[in-house]
């Protein structure tokens, strides 16, 4: 084990992030774009001034969407791979593949679902342009808080494991995470800027599709990166440290 | 889970070796920051704050920003 392992994992994480980004892009295009188009139609019907189009809708919904989703996939793939280097062998009795899927699931939850439950994704025409600064700050704050708390909860869980046992240490750590996130939900300001006659069903469909995009991204990443990491790491420990025969792959 | 090391069988995969923290740190710092910059350009540039003038970046990633859950406008 040397720093080449870290580099190899990072490269694989970014590649797996790119591939997962392609899957997420397909999901976003098929599930989300119709809601975006309907929301823009609503916006056009309700606003008096007509803005000049800087980038055409057909480019925004294809090449623009692809740029954003793929860069997002690569960036989070890289960050997840680095987090994986820290987590590997430190979070419990999980092999390389299981650690990857566990990390992915936790990332989906802490990076997306937790901030989403307080500040959900909004389609065009939902949101007052004058409050973009405040909403952006709150969203990134919620994301940061959620990730830091998850890391803290993991460390606390590890510390408690020898005295409480793995099961109850995990329960306590997760409960502590939930309580603090609940306090953040309660005390951070609410954002409700949905226009009065905006169709509720459209808002719901848009938010569900945004959630589906993330589920596809992180699910795909966990499986792909897990497989790559398993293949990279499996031969090494066989002879080197443990001395045990590596069980056949399942 | 103090000293109870069960002999590995077909159902208990070996726990992978830890990577030393000092090996990870330089990669984590450099690439961590690089990845956060990428996320900033997808998620927030020319919205709340701007590095470049205009709205080209914002308009180009507009749909991605909405569907990835970032506040857009």
From TrEMBL, chain A:
It comes from the Bacteria. The chain crosses the membrane at residues 9-31, 63-86, 98-117, 137-156, 168-188, 208-226. Keywords: Membrane, Transmembrane, Transmembrane helix. Pfam families: CbtA. This is Membrane protein. It comes from Streptomyces capoamus. The lineage of its organism: Bacteria, Bacillati, Actinomycetota, Actinomycetes, Kitasatosporales.
TrEMBL record, chain B:
Pfam families: CbtB. This is Cobalt transporter. InterPro entries: CbtB_put. Keywords: Membrane, Transmembrane, Transmembrane helix. It comes from the Bacteria. The chain crosses the membrane at residues 24-42. The keyword Transmembrane helix applies. The lineage of its organism: Bacteria, Bacillati, Actinomycetota, Actinomycetes, Kitasatosporales.
